[in-house]
Amino acid sequence: MARTQTPDPPIDLLAPIQGEVSWFCCGTAWGPCSSTGKGACGTCNSGSLQHAWPNTSDACWAITRPDSCGVSLSRRTCGFRHRTTALCSGVSVVTAIADCGPQTDLFCGERSCCGSTCASNRLIDLTPAAYSQIASLSTGLRPCEISAA
Question: What InterPro entries does this protein's entry cite (predicted)?
């Protein structure tokens, strides 16, 4: 009997996961952002409660490769809603996928902390409007927990 391989990329992972949250600019100008592209989904705007996810499609997965950092992330497509909770404050925000990213494999082992609370590997990018709901934009990176909304 042949051994069945697990799918690459992972298709479904329902448990919350801890990692780093960062922010990025997209769409029309807002706050510190000038106008940029609308993201992989065509709907991204810096002033909206949205995020980029590293496993929105096969093409996205091929670029971001969180598995290179030992992280399995579920396939979620445009519009799927995640809850991101800042581990520093416990404050959370619900956002919808609007882009592909971050490029997790470029940041394997990167670690952000607040006091003794730490997390590693960039797993989600929030728009500035969303990130500012859970932390100051000046922090740039925060440890977080990500779950389905």
Answer: RlpA-like_sf
Residue 27: is it exposed, middle or buried by C-beta count within 10 angstroms (0-12/13-18/19+)?
buried
Q: Encoding tokens for residue 134?
A: 């859970």
- The DSSP-derived string for 81-139 is EEEEEETTT--EEEEEEEEE---GGGGTT-EEEETTEEEESEEEEE-HHHHHHHS-GGG
**Residue 66: strand, helix, or coil:** helix
pTM: 0.90
Q: What is the largest CA-CA distance in the chain?
A: 58
Give the residue ranges of the chain where pLDDT is below 70. 1-14
Among 121, 112, 55, 66, residue whose Cα is nearest residue 87:
112
What percent of the chain is helix, strand and coil (3-state, nearest 5)? 15, 35, 50
DSSP letter at 32 equals: T
